[in-house]
Amino acid sequence: MLNNDVLRSLRYTLDVNDVQMTEIIQLSGKEVELETLDALLKKEDEEGFVACDDELMAHFLDGLVYFKRGKDESRPAQPFELPVTNNMVLKKLRVAFELKEDDMHAIMQSVDCPVSKPEMSALFRKFGHSNYRTCGDQFLRNFLKGLTLRVRG
To answer: Does residue 117 contact residue 88 with C-beta atoms inside 8 Å?
Structure first.
């Protein structure tokens, strides 16, 4: 899934404006201009569209965790994992929104996409683990849709 699509979806889910989006990114130590953010939030077929790179997406996801849960100054910042995969986006969203396994299943159930516990846990395994499963674009789209329903009501 395109990083830009994830940014747009999460902006809608959180119901934040452009200034708040830049503040979320700044929480992880990256400065972004409003004009750049505006270009990132445009759709692919719109004039002025700029693709969101993995580094900026990683900063946004970490900033989102800090925005939702607060930053623990006593712990060192985690190094960025690149490239950003759908599995990584799912993991960061689970942490940011403090979702338990039952919450994740309820979110997927709300969009008529039931998933078993083993299937769900396979998405959170470390790459290379024998039970690791790659998160597909459609699964992530459904999860973001369900998360929006949960957060915005």
So the answer is: no
